[in-house]
Design brief:
D-Maltodextrin-Binding Protein, domain 2; 342 residues; five-stranded mixed sheet; single chain; 16 helices; alpha/beta
Length: 342
């Protein structure tokens, strides 16, 4: 049964990597994401041999969206995935899709926000409040209206006495936001790294807000916008599931050491650049992402997202998040390796 569950996906779905070392062929963990620098914990754990030491290999698969990742978890094509907070993540439980949110894959806290609100180059200057007021009736791009980013934007605008109805929200992929800002097709956008730094480098945009306050992130309570999710079958394979969490959080801690404490930063930048196939300068100049070194998931933020999705009629009824969030794997890692102090 283990061999069947861990069969390798067919060619053409993604470009995988499998960790080196003496790892059984039936103990390869299939990890899916949309890509980006928030996979840093996986890259660093692989590079330092943390997964191999835990007796597992990892096969990384790129997919286009949160729905495709969720479907792949539900159908047994993936074991682990980083999935954005969307209505589908909550409705999966009502549809009897067996998954567990087990940790943090991307979050927001002061100084660590890789998703920011920018305005196009040439947009009227002024105070933050004046620039926000000038956005009334203008095109503002986000990746999806049915995602946590829409709720965060709502919170941000509310701080200036505005609502989502005061702007024209358009959906664009992150790569499409850069040319849209450059051409003036949109006046503002909530952009993710590395596209954020690209837009700033090209002077087609300038930053307006890091959205930390709108997300509710604090120095010790990061707001998780992309949780780490296990399939139920993988979670029940306790040794592999715990081994993945141990290796992953050790990699995340190296990332935090580098970008929060400056420990071995250039070495870490070099590893990430090689793994992500990016110029080291892009990573060096990028805004660092929030990757919680203790794997903690902010349930408060998830509850707020769920309430927003119900309000917007993307969901019908709330679910008991205790049926979805399982902190035991991250908790076990922290118990063994100690709590990481921010």
């Amino acid at each position: 049964m283990m061999m069947h569950r861990r069969h390798l996906l067919g060619a053409g779905l993604a470009a995988p990597f499998i960790l080196p070392g003496r790892v059984r062929a039936d103990n390869v963990v299939r990890f899916g994401s949309v890509g980006g620098l928030t996979d840093a914990g996986v890259y660093l754990a692989e590079d330092q041999g943390y997964f191999a030491k835990a007796g597992i290999g990892v096969r990384m698969l790129r997919m286009a969206s949160a729905p495709s990742l969720l479907t792949s978890l539900a159908t047994g094509q993936l074991d682990v995935a980083g999935i954005s907070v969307t209505p589908g993540l909550f409705s999966a439980i009502t549809q009897r899709v067996q998954i567990r949110i087990v940790g943090d894959k991307q979050s927001v806290r002061p100084g660590f926000s890789a998703t920011r609100l920018v305005v196009r180059g040439g947009f009227p200057a002024g105070t933050e409040a004046q620039q926000v007021a000038a956005l009334k009736g203008k095109n503002l791009a986000i990746s999806s209206k049915a995602a946590s980013v829409a709720m965060v934007l709502r919170n941000y605008l509310a701080g200036f006495g505005m609502t989502l109805a005061d702007v024209h929200v358009v959906e664009l992929s992150y790569p499409s936001m850069v040319p849209a800002l450059g051409s003036g097709a949109v006046d503002a956008a909530v952009v993710l790294e590395p596209f954020l730094s690209e837009a700033l480098r090209m002077s087609v945009a300038r930053p307006l807000s890091d959205l930390v306050a709108a997300s509710g992130g604090t120095a010790t309570e990061a707001s998780t916008s992309v949780p780490l999710v296990y399939s139920e079958a993988f979670a029940l394979d306790h040794a592999s599931a715990q081994g993945f969490m141990d290796g992953y959080l050790r990699g995340v801690r190296l990332y935090n050491d580098a970008f929060a404490r400056g420990i071995g930063k250039e070495k870490i930048i070099g590893i990430l650049a090689a793994r992500a196939k990016l110029d080291p300068a892009i990573i060096r100049n990028a805004f660092p992402a929030g990757l919680d070194p203790n794997g903690k998931v902010d349930v408060r933020f998830l509850e707020e997202c769920q309430a927003y999705f119900i309000q917007q009629h993307y969901l019908e009824t709330p679910i008991d998040l205790r049926k979805l969030v399982d902190p035991s794997f991250a908790g076990s890692t922290v118990a063994r390796f100690g709590e990481y102090k921010f």
